[in-house]
Amino acid sequence: MISKQEIKHILETVSFKQSVPPFLKSIYSDNINVKGFNLYDEQLDLVEEVFNNIMGSNLGCAVVELPTGYGKSLIAMSVMILMYHFNMIKQSQASFVVCNKKLLQTQYHDSFKFLLLMKGKDNYLCPARSNHITASVAPCTDPNYDCSYKDSCTYMCTKTAMDSLPIAVINYAWYLTYLHKENYWRFNGLQVFDECHLMPSMLMEKLNVNRLELAEQLRAILIMLGRASASTLPEIVARAESYETIANVVEKEVKECVDILRARASSVGMLDESEEQLHDWASTISTNIDMFRFLSKKSGGTLRYDRIGDKLLINPLSGVYNAILSKSSYSLFMSSTIEEKYYLESILKDAGMNEKGEKRTVTYIKRPSLFDRDKRLINVIRGFRVSSRFLQSEENIKALVNLSHTIATEYHPEERGIIFVNSYEQANYFTSLDDPRYFVHLKGEALYPLIEGHDKSKNGILVSPVVSEGFDFKGDKSRFQIVFKIPFLAPNTEEEKIYGEQWYFSEAMNKLIQMTGRSIRNKSDYASSYILDENLDYLLRNFDPPEWWRDSLNYLN
C-alpha cells in the first residue's frame, strides 16, 4: 500500500521523459519533463484508492464514477504516472487514454504535452500525393508499397512513434478499428476509458449489422469491380441468419476487393469520389469480419449475433468487454454516469477471469460531488411533457423557445449559456427571436466558429443539438444551461429488445447527466441548469441516478 503523502510527493516531483522521433519534434518537445501534478485533497484520496486497488492485482480493473468537474483526466494521468514510477508498467509497455471526441483528445494533449496524439487516417494528408488525399486511401495502405515520404509523413511518423512512446491518447473510433489487430500496437500497460458510459452504444454502432444495408454496399462494390459474385453474394447476405454465415461467405471476396482498390490507389495516385466510398465500405466490411473473429476467440465462444428484423445485434456485450480487457494488464473505466449494478452485473459480469484462467480483480469506486448544492442546482420546470409527438407541433416548439428565452432574459441577462435542443429543426426556431445573443447551430453549419463566437461574446447563448457531451464550457463560458427534452432513444428499438429496458433508461440518464455537467468543470465553478420536460419523473421511476445528481434537483412550478 502506498500512502497518500508518498503519492503527493511523487506527483509533485515526478519527471517523466519520452524521446520523440525527429520529425515530430515540431509537435512534441524532446525528453519531456512532467513535473508538478498538484491535486487537492479529495483528488489525492481518490488516486490513492484507485492506485492501491489496481496495484493489488496483476490484472487490476477499476470502475470509477465521478461527478462532472471532478478532474477525471488529472486522476487518470496521476494513476498512470504512478504505475510507471513503481515499475508496475515498464517503459517498453504502452498505455492509452481513450476518449470520445477528437476535441477531448486535443484537450488531453494540451494539458499533458507528453501524450502522443493519435487520430484516425482521415485526419492526416498524404505528402506522396501533394496532400490532396488522406492517409485512409494513400498508397501506403498497400502493404507492399514502400513510400519515400515515410520519414516526413505525420501519419506514418505518429504511427511509428506508438512503437516507442509509452503513452498516447486515442479516440474510441480508432481504438475499436484496431482492437482486433494483435500485433498492431505494443499494449500491455494501462488502458483508461474516459466517458466510458458511451462505450455500449459505440460498440453497438460499430459491431451491429443491418443485413440489407450491408448487402447493398457489397453489391455496389462487386458490380463496380466487375466481380461475377455480384449476382449471388448480396442475396445471401440479405437473408443470412447469423453474422458468422456472412463472414464465411464474403470474407475472401471482400479482402480481394480491398486489395484491388488499394493497388489502384497506389498506381493511379488517388481514387475518384465513388471509388473512395467503395474502398471505405470494403475496408469496413473486412475490418468488421476480422473483429468478429477476434471477439469470438477472446470471448471463449460465448459471443453471438441475435437477429431482430434486418439487424444482427452482438450479444452479450460482456463478451466484448472481456476482449477489451484482454488487451492490457490494467484497465480504468471512468465517467460521471456509471450505474453500479448495470456495469458490474451486466457489462463486466464475466470480467473476473481472463482467457488464460488468471483472476482479474474488478473494483467499483464512486465519489460525491465536490460542489455546494447551490452551485449546481438543476431546476425542473413543470408544465410540459415533451414527447416526440409533442414536438411535432410548431406551437409547442415555440412555447419551449419562448420559455427558454424568458429564463435567459429574466434570470441570466448578462451571462453566457447553452440550450440543448434535440434537432437542427428545433434550433432553427431560435433564429426567429432576432436576438444577437443567440449563436444558433444550423444544419450544415460549422460548429467550432460558433463556439468561438459564443466564448468571446459578453452574454451569448449557444443553441445546438450536438454539444451535450465532450465539450468544456467552464467558468464564465456558461453560467446556465437549458434542456429541452429528456434524451430518450426511440422506444421499442431492436437494441432495446436485445439489451433490455435497463440499457434504454441508462442511455437517457447518461446523456442527461452529461448535459447538466457541461458548465460545471471544477471545484470553484458554478452554473444553473433548467429541465423543461416533466418526463424526468418517468425516468427517475425507472433508473436511479447518482445520489449527488438527484440531490441537485430543485422543482419549480
From TrEMBL:
Lineage, opening ranks: Bacteria, Pseudomonadati, Campylobacterota, Epsilonproteobacteria, Campylobacterales
Similarity-based family: Belongs to the helicase family. DinG subfamily.
Any GO MF annotation of the entry: ATP binding
Gene3D superfamilies cross-referenced by the UniProt entry: P-loop containing nucleotide triphosphate hydrolases (3.40.50.300)
Official protein name in the record: ATP-dependent helicase C-terminal domain-containing protein
Biological processes annotated in GO: nucleobase-containing compound metabolic process
The organism's place on the tree of life at top rank: Bacteria
Domain ATP-dependent helicase C-terminal: 424-538
Any matching Pfam family: ResIII
UniProt xrefs under PANTHER family: DNA REPAIR DEAD HELICASE RAD3/XP-D SUBFAMILY MEMBER, REGULATOR OF TELOMERE ELONGATION HELICASE 1
